[in-house]
Amino acid sequence: MTNILVMGQPYWGQRIARALDTPAGDMRAAFIPHGSYPRLLARPRSDRVLVIRVGYRIGATTTRGRLFDAYWSLLRGSLRNAVPCHYWLGSDVLETIEEARAGTLRWAALRGTRDDLHLADAPWLVSELESVGIHAVNAHVPVPHRAPSSPPALPAEFSVLTYLATNRFEFYGGDAILEAARRLPDVRFDVVGTTGAPYRQSPPNVRWHGWVTDMPRYYADTTVVVRIPRHDGLGETVVEGLLNARHVLYTHEVPFVRTVWPATPEALVAALAALRDDHAAGRLEPNLTGRAYALEAFDEARLVGHLAALVRERA
């Protein structure tokens, strides 16, 4: 039996714990909430356990980062046979790279983990971590997707679907998306994730839907999914867009997805205008090759099996 403790970023940490609590019964995984950290230290144990740190980067100069690094050291001392693992998600990698460039990264803390198991949610994160001396293995976080049994036809009206967060509007390319909407007044832009309250001067062809739960309806009613953050792990709207046979514009390279980088308004408008013109001429079909790829590459059972194999090899 492999015992696994998962801590760190709650949303993804809980997903990882559920994925590794395998039906086969040879793994037992549990997510440890923040409030239970002191109790974990108070109960030393000597049996072998894999401890996964999710999204909380090593060597951060912030107060919270330093405190968690100190706790991590105490925990490793308490769990004498612990096997440490670091699961990198996206922003944690970006912030590590930025601190390394700025000369503020605590290199000693990072180098001290080079022999640990490092997992990364996307292949480009693996490359970025190599630049700071960390060898990681790509392992996309297993997520249960609701893929339609058959791909919906493209809607009659050419339209764009994107996700923006109010507190990270600029980071997710909000300015470029609104500018593209201004330059393409005949294209409808549907925005989920925020009500757009701070952006009331947005063009009339932008519709703000806030937080939604019925995403399949939005995918069925769109032609192109746009996701252009400054940096990302493997975005779930990209995966879901492909599973719904939609065309996808993204800032990172993914098979059967059109890369838009740098994500300037000009680049975004050019990519969207080309798709719009193909749609108007009747040449644009559902992205069936992208859907076939996503059905295999992001199958939850396949991702769980890959992640479990990496854990078993180290544990």
Task: Summarize, please.
This protein has 315 residues and is an alpha/beta fold. Helix content is 39%, strand content 17%. The termini are close together.
What do you see in this structure?
The chain is 39% helix and 17% strand. With 315 residues, the chain is α/β, with parallel strands linked by helices. It has two domains: 2-142 and 300-314, 3-Layer(aba) Sandwich (Rossmann fold); 159-296, Glycogen Phosphorylase B (Rossmann fold, 3-Layer(aba) Sandwich). The strands form two sheets. It has a six-stranded parallel beta sheet. Strands 9-8-7-10-11-12 form a six-stranded parallel beta sheet, with helices on both faces. 39% of the residues are buried. The model has no long low-confidence stretch (mean pLDDT 93).
Tag the structure with descriptive keywords:
2 domains, Rossmann fold, 315 residues, 6-stranded parallel beta sheet, 12 helices, 17% strand, alpha/beta
CATH architecture of the largest domain, by name, is 3-Layer(aba) Sandwich
List low-confidence stretches. Answer: none
What's the β-strand tally?
Answer: 12
Structural class by secondary-structure content: alpha/beta
- Which CATH class of the largest domain is shown? Alpha Beta
> What is the topology, as strand order, of the major beta sheet?
2-1-3-4-5-6
Secondary structure tally, helices: 12
Q: Look at the structure and give the mean pLDDT.
A: 93
The amount of beta strand, in percent, is 15-25%
Order of helices and strands: EHEHEHEHHEHEEHEEHEHEEHHH
- As for the CATH topology of the largest domain, it is Rossmann fold
Cα Rg: 21 Å
Distance between the termini: 10 Å
Number of domains: 2
How would you sum up the global shape? globular
Largest sheet: 6 strands, parallel
